[in-house]
Amino acid sequence: FYVNWSTDKVYIQLPDNTNPSNSQILGSTRQSFFKTTKSGGLPTHITLDGLTFRHAANFAQKAALRTNTGWVLKNSTIEDVNAGGLGVYGTDNFIYNNIIQDNGQAGMIGQGVNALIVDNTVRANNWKHFSTGWDGGGGKMARTDGLYLLNHDTYGNYGAGFWLDVYNTNYTIDGGFFHDNKMIKQSYEGMGIELEINNGPGKVINASFYGNSGAGITIAESSDVIIRGNFLADNLELRNMADRTPGLKRIGIYSNNFKGAQIANSIGTWTSTSLKDLSIKADFNRYDNGTGAIWRWRGTSYYTTNIYSSLGVEQNATKGSVTIPLA
What we know:
The chain is mainly beta. It has helices at about 275, 310, and strands at about 1-5, 10, 45-50, 50-55, 65, 70-75, 75-80, 85-90, 95, 100, 105-115, 115-120, 120-125, 135-140, 150, 155, 160-165, 170-175, 175-180, 195, 200-205, 210, 215-220, 225-230, 230, 235-240, 250-255, 255-260, 265-270, 280-285, 285-290, 295, 300, 320.
């Protein structure tokens, strides 16, 4: 479409080239669902329950519905907006049992302190194919402190299911399903979770990862991360690009269950002592890989659990049947 502001006319070409004059067409100019107060900010301590929000004409990297301190959003739907659906900002937010779907760029974005995000479904976002490195996907949050993401179900997004990008600390991702997220150009784009350039401490526990075009979990240039008790049918990847602070260090990968998947390094400068030097530890993991490799490290594949003497990890790893919990 094209807007001629001097004549107040909108010119539209429909996908099937039919005459727009014979169609009902909805046009939206509203960028957000709530106006700011006279003092310039949103009010605090608002509860929204059982509402549907749709059709905002917001710009890229802007959320159509944005919270402030003390907000409760529950049992609601945010859908069909041009760019980002929900923006979680402020302190002490409670985001419960919502559906965030079919938004043009991202399902959920934001930053803040002590956000509790529980039992939400985030699906089929970034259908406009914005860059997956520029918020496109299920959601991206940055500079959070005390984030708790519980029983999150994110799938069918073009881009990562969930992305913690830059200086997140004291975060927990507990349970949930991160699955069937998709690529636009490169397979790695459809990750389940990406943890990138985070100070930590943080942990991912008891969650399920499957069907993603990329890794189930990517830990990239982040420190003080625990990965424990998860089920992965997609790889767990470790990345350590140069000149990114804090860099990859103090990573613990314990008691996870892998089915047809492996732990692998990706981009970075890796030496024979990198696991020790970066304090990357792994143990008590269980692998159901058939004849496939359980680790892929510095170009070498390792097929048995007898790798402690070679890599210094997995002293107590086991092989056996693994069933991936599905949403």
